[in-house]
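Q: Can I borrow your eye for a moment on a structure tokenisation matter? Would you mind producing a protein record, from residues through to fold? Write it directly below this note and I will take it from there.
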Amino acid sequence: MRIDDFKPGYPRFTALLSSYEPYFIFRRFDRLRARIILRKQDKLSILEQRLNEVDQKETSLLFLGKSRCDNNPDRLGLLSEIENCLGDYDQFIERTSRTLSYGRAQPRDRESLLNWLSGTGSIARDETAYLAHSHELVSLAPTGDTALSQLETWIEDKLINYGFLQGRFHAASNDRHVFIYSGSFIKQSAKALLLFLITLLLMMPIIVCNIISTLSVRIVIVMASTITYLLILSTLTKSKTMELILAGAT
């Protein structure tokens, strides 16, 4: 079914979101998560302080030295409550860490959703205001090759501007202003272009050095090409420092 086959409102909006994975954009609610973590942390701190006070007031050293014989109801109750609170705290910490690890939503995808919502007006503004929080929007879509994704975006924009993505190339909607490409042409073109650029960057210094016989000029060319290669690599990909060092060494 096409997006337009669904009723206006959430049926059509969710059809749009499900038609393109990068449109799975949602808020992380960073401030609220921090607030909840601080509250849970403080509750554990209070319980820890109460446990210390119970231990200090304990008159039976046997209860402190052998937990099997500990019959202090206050301490047993506190330990049970601490265990429950710690489990809840750890689970929330893990969920928050997992949420923070999601990749940030691409501005292009956010703008696309805003344009669609503005053009259709099918969802109440209050319920789409989450898209205004660009600093904490994340994409649930799997993170692919950053360099390849950027090239795909560039190629797709050029094809749209020149009117090549028509008809069967965006069959998800009848609206001529909705472009959700589902073919393989853009991916294949981006891969070919990326391979060409990599080959050019690697082979160009070799070709130039074979033409030039001056040693000092060759050294400058090698240094300049290496810096350029690493700069492009760090810009287009999420390379770590060690990965850049290894790339430069090889």
Observations:
- The longest strand covers residues 25-27.
- The mean pLDDT is 81.
- The CA atoms of residues 85 and 156 lie 50 Å apart.
